Amino acid sequence: MSRDKDYDVIVIGAGHNGLVCANYLAKAGCKVVVLERRPVVGGASATEEMFGGYKIDVGSAVHTLIHETGIIDDLKLEKFGLKYLQLDPFAFAPFPDGTYLRFYRDLDKTCEEIEKVSPKDAEAYKKFVEDWTELNRILTATFTSKPSAPSMSYKALSKDIVSLLKMTARRSLQDRIHQLLMDYGKLLSMTFESEYVKAPLAFLAAQAGVSPSTPGTANFAGWHALSHSTGVTRPQGGSGKLSEALQESLINMGGEVRLDTEVTSILIRNDRAIGVETSSREKFSSDIVISSVAPVKTLLELIPSEALNDNLRRKISSIKISPISGVYIRGIATNLPEYKAVGGSDNKDHYMGMQLLCPTLSGLEKGFQEATIGNKPSKPAVYLLTPSVVDPSLAPEKHLVYIWAQPYPLQLAGGQSWDDATQDVVADIFNATSEYIEGLVDIITKHRVIRTPPQLAGDLQLPYSNIMHGDMTIDQLFFMRPIPELSGYRTPIKGLYLTGAGTHPGGGVQGAAGKNTAEVILADMTKAKRWIKPALVVAGSSIAFAVLRRSARASN
């Protein structure tokens, strides 16, 4: 570390990506500090204590992709209290007519469920999962690689050549490319005949924040295959336990995490990052600053406007960030919701995982179309979770009920404010659940927290309330995320790096962006050291030559 600097590395934001990045750098010997605006770590996957000790997730509640990155083993996070619980069945999809499906980790068991509504779709589902499992092995290999076409191709090929051969044996390369470029609504409609299968899979894909008709989003439906191969999990003690374990790991390696410390500006001198300043006017110095805040906020708000050329600023301003997300309600309940479809069945495993109230794919698409023009969805799709069933420690002697309804716009049409609309929106959401559940509103009226799109945008620093920090469309993925010029985590400002959901490979609880950013920084450090050593030799030789020349002159 430079003697005149406070730290080797400053990380802005203690979301899981920022903490992952900090951990890898601390593991390599860097002196690291993480500065977090909020009083807890975890960002949009944090867990907070509310209502006198109940542990409630403020955002993401289930984890799948993190298990594909190697991070948990690399950092030995189990030593710091991280324990994952399997959700199985991982999804339950009831319908207003009394039909329902359970999706189990076991593929054959799930196909038996689907066979009850469509034998043809049961066969198609098995093929769909097997097909995408092979493709996902290749795609997930690119998650932890530098986002460039050559490095991704090498990583994919070296990771699983067998999967590649199986994949191309089933379909031609042309078919594969066509499949990846289509929208997930079309993919599901081409693959399945029954709405009972299409609708829940579409709703799961919609968690990426894009509509079923958005081109190049087929892979969001394809990720579903990971639920069978990897499984759907959540940390015991709440979603935030991942970030809490990362925090403990970092501290154990000598790193620091400072909460309630909001960075308001990144300090730059001579086109180089030299530190940050906080809202309390405190300054921290370092040659390396990493921002896990959304790229648009980092580069358009935290640095001086003159630090970037006009052309690059225009490109950053043009990053697509759809102002559409959802409304969440978190409540304490004395009883679990009673689903009409299962009646008084003794089998209660439908409470284990995600409960998907989305009757049709076309209805989901209609909701996105309505939200795009600022209207509330006429019938919102509703995602429920009852995490205390699998983890009673979250709500002793009671239950947690999580509700996520979508899609809802950040700005309502006609000048209506969210303050005025919230009560009606909550009523709409409970009305939408009444086709499936008897009296849900009566179960959780006493203790509940509601967050609308503007509140999500403010509380969690989500640009335009977008949980992905930027649309996950084909032109903003891989080596084009957030834009090609910034896709390698580096910025034109020396020492300033980006990480987080707005960078490759995107959002979701996975941590790959943080891991990748750390690898890029360590590579840059190594490269700098290789240049410094010869420079010191040259400098030393020059000094020695000057001394000898002076001695010669003096002797004359």
How would you characterize the overall build of this protein?
The chain has helices at residues 16-27, 71-74, 107-115, 119-143, 149-159, 161-170, 173-181, 184-191, 195-205, 218-222, 226-229, 241-252, 295-301, 310-317, 361-372, 418-433, 440-443, 453-459, 512-555; strands at residues 7-12, 32-35, 47-50, 54-57, 84-86, 91-94, 100-103, 233-235, 256-258, 263-269, 272-278, 283-291, 324-333, 354-357, 381-385, 399-409, 447-451, 496-498. With 556 residues, it is of the alpha/beta class. The protein folds into 3 domains: 7-46 and 239-320 and 466-524, 3-Layer(bba) Sandwich (FAD/NAD(P)-binding domain); 101-234, no CATH class; 322-464. The longest helix is centred in the last third of the chain and has 44 residues, at 512-555. Helix 3 packs antiparallel against helix 4 (119-143) and helix 8 (184-191) packs antiparallel against helix 9 (195-205). The protein is built from 19 helices and 18 strands. The strands form 4 sheets. Strands 1, 2, 9, 10, 11, 12 and 18 form a 7-stranded mixed sheet that branches. Strands 7-6-14-15-16-13-17 form a 7-stranded mixed sheet, sandwiched between helices. It has a two-stranded antiparallel sheet with strand order 3-4. Interacts with COX5B; this interaction may contribute to localize PYROXD2 to the inner face of the inner mitochondrial membrane. This is Pyridine nucleotide-disulfide oxidoreductase domain-containing protein 2. GO terms for molecular function: oxidoreductase activity.
